[in-house]
């Protein structure tokens, strides 16, 4: 008789480790990731970095070469005696993804080759007055068709992803809230974008600040940094938090909404989310422009830069506005530093200019409000990828599947 508490008969199978095929799939993805993120790399260097023997590296590169993902060639210069190690390069011109960036003031589409090379790009201004899913998707799909018509017959698209300025449910790519975008209710962005593109590839959507955080960690100022907070300004304020190398996404994907952290509960400015005193409300575009007496005459990045430039030239009103906003920004950063103990805080988007103009206030707040052990080795940096951080992050999201299982994804995309 078998009781409920008896173990299943085939316990050995349950305890078995990964199969040879699973190990091979993992190694193929790891090798391709090295080439994708690091650029051309020799077989000898791959052997050292991956801890595998030369024959295994040779077999893996042969598989990826046969699939058309990489190519091997002799190095241009060696400087060493003896037979040089072959260099593995990504097939950037053949294997690509489509990456989209849906921001408050702009729509961007790019065809990005393996290795991160932007092969083609389109951009247009987006009006702030309202949000039309049909118009946004139609424009991006048109851009994609234009770029696809220019590709060679042997190219293959292996992924599509979009960065969206709003809260995105990661399970289905639905935009649940976007107060600065003018959205109302749930927006089925991924579903509609997938349908309009007609590529047979599911479009993946992520929050723009989260994707920018990943981009800065993999290709920007945060390379090699495993604990990082990225703050992104695009009218409002978004954030991406990376802990021990992993993006903090939360239960449904809404983690990192640091712009809606309450920093001024008593006399706070109203926020588009319906609350008051949010970090976004105190340091966003409108807060800065109103404090500088310039709101309404000009909006957007150029208006923010104009205030920073005026303060740099000695404009007292602009300086006072930056000091005020910088003080609130410093308080927000201090809270995040105490919560996550990051190695680095990166300022991107509109916040790049604001931080550069108010760094003294931010650092002063940190000195007072951040715990000494948390701020001891903290580095404050501006985005190395600039306005393209969100687009680069979308491209990396689109490449994630092919990096996880290169041959399977390529075969599926090719068919």
From TrEMBL:
A Pfam family per the record: ROK
Organism taxonomic ancestry: Bacteria, Bacillati, Actinomycetota, Actinomycetes, Streptosporangiales
InterPro entries assigned to the protein according to its UniProt record, in alphabetical order: ATPase_NBD, HTH_MarR-typ, ROK, WH-like_DNA-bd_sf, WH_DNA-bd_sf
Family matches, as Gene3D superfamilies: 3.30.420.40, Winged helix-like DNA-binding domain superfamily/Winged helix DNA-binding domain
Stored SUPFAM superfamilies: Actin-like ATPase domain, Winged helix' DNA-binding domain
Protein's UniProt name: ROK family transcriptional regulator
Family, as annotated: Belongs to the ROK (NagC/XylR) family.
Annotated HTH marR-type domain residues: 31-81
């Amino acid at each position: 008789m078998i009781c409920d508490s008896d173990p299943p008969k085939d316990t050995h199978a349950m305890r078995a480790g990964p199969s040879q095929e699973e190990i091979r799939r993992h190694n193929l993805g790891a090798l391709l990731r090295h080439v994708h993120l690091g650029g051309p790399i020799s077989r000898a260097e791959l052997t050292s970095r991956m801890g595998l023997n030369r024959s295994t590296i040779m077999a893996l590169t042969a598989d990826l070469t046969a699939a058309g993902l990489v190519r091997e060639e002799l190095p241009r210069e060696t400087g060493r005696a003896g037979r040089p190690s072959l260099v593995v390069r990504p097939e950037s011109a053949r294997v690509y993804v489509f990456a989209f960036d849906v921001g408050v003031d702009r729509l961007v589409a790019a065809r990005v080759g393996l290795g991160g090379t932007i092969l083609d790009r389109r951009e247009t201004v987006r009006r702030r007055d309202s949000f039309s899913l049909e118009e946004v998707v139609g424009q991006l799909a048109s851009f994609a068709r234009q770029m696809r018509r220019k590709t060679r017959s042997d190219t293959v698209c292996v992924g599509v992803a979009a960065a969206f300025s709003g809260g995105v449910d990661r399970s289905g790519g639905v935009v649940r809230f976007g107060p600065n975008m003018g959205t109302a209710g749930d927006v089925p962005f991924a579903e509609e974008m997938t349908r309009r593109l007609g590529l047979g590839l599911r479009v993946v959507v992520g929050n723009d600040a989260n994707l920018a955080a990943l981009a800065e960690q993999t290709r920007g100022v945060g390379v090699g940094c495993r604990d990082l907070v990225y703050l992104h300004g695009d009218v409002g304020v978004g954030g991406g938090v990376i802990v021990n190398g992993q993006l903090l996404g939360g239960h449904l994907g809404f983690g990192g909404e640091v712009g809606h952290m309450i920093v001024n509960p008593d006399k706070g400015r109203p926020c588009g989310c319906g609350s008051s005193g949010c970090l976004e409300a105190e340091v966003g575009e409108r807060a800065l422009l109103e404090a500088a007496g310039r709101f309404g005459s000009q909006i957007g990045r150029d208006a923010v830069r104009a205030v920073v430039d005026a303060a740099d030239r000695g404009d007292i009103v602009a300086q006072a506005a930056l000091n005020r906003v910088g003080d609130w920004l410093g308080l927000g950063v201090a809270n995040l530093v105490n919560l996550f103990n990051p190695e680095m805080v990166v300022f991107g988007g509109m916040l790049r200019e604001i931080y550069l103009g108010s760094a003294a206030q931010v650092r002063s707040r940190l000195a007072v409000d951040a715990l000494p052990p948390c701020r001891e080795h903290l580095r404050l940096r501006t985005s190395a990828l600039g306005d393209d951080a969100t687009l680069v992050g979308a491209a990396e999201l689109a490449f994630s599947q092919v990096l996880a299982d290169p041959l399977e994804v390529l075969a599926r995309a090719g068919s």
